Amino acid sequence: MPLVPMRGLLDKAQEGHYAVGAFNCNNMEIIQAIITAATAENAPVIVQASQGAIKYAGLEYITAMTKIAAQNTHVPVVLHIDHGTSFEQVMRCIREGFTSVMIDGSKLPLEENIALTKRVLDVARACGVSVEAELGKIGGTEDDITVSEKEAMYTDPEEAIYFAEQTGVDALAIAIGTAHGQYKGEPKLDFDRLAEIQKRVNVPIVLHGSSGVPDDAIRQAIALGVSKINIDTNIREAFMAGLKGALAKNPKEIDPRKVLGPAKEAMVEVIREKIRLFGSSGKA
What we know:
Shape: globular
Number of helices: 11
Helix content: 40-55%
Number of strands: 11
Structural class: alpha/beta
CATH class of the domain at 7-135 and 211-278: Alpha Beta
Strand content: 15-25%
Radius of gyration: 18 Å
Largest sheet: 8 strands, parallel, barrel
CATH architecture of the domain at 7-135 and 211-278: Alpha-Beta Barrel
Distance between the termini: 12 Å
């Protein structure tokens, strides 16, 4: 089926008390793994492209491959840019066919973040494209974007209310203790902050940096209103484990298909596990 906007899927997730998985891609095998897993679980899914993915694979390649993958499944698929850093870049994604975009103005002063988000919304709404924004800084590194522990700060509930009212954004990423990349220890999420924001802001909430967060914490976050959960690092870990395992069995292998196949299978299993954890299995 054709690519779909994100907001409708998140509204259903809010109503049904589950979350839609948003999985980052970097190449064909990862896109295939995401769609294969979502199809097997009969689940709606969001394919995300980060700054690094766009630089590595090319915007046109990512768009074309995801469109082809979506056409060959019955489940709803969203194509979303993760952490779009400028108005110009987000516009390129919309022109290319993305059905959802994230504009990340979290490093800007609040009013500048609002102004940038509204500027994106003005165009996106006219094109039927969903918009995610971020309030508060999520620590860690994702491709070219790094937020130090010193810079990372939790989302202020009062600012979240004001931001949502001023922008009318479709989804809001908040900082409650997660981080991008691999965790050094077990993350401790501020569930009280999440509950207060969700209670007072009528916008689907997004949890970034969710790889490595314990399953029980994920379930609690969903119960408190998180509707979109981002996964990247766990997919990379599965890819490399499958690749290394194949090469360990046959170090002289020269056929890329013989090592990328097991890597893809490993990613499918991890993504299926996440979809079941998020409660979106069977919700297509």
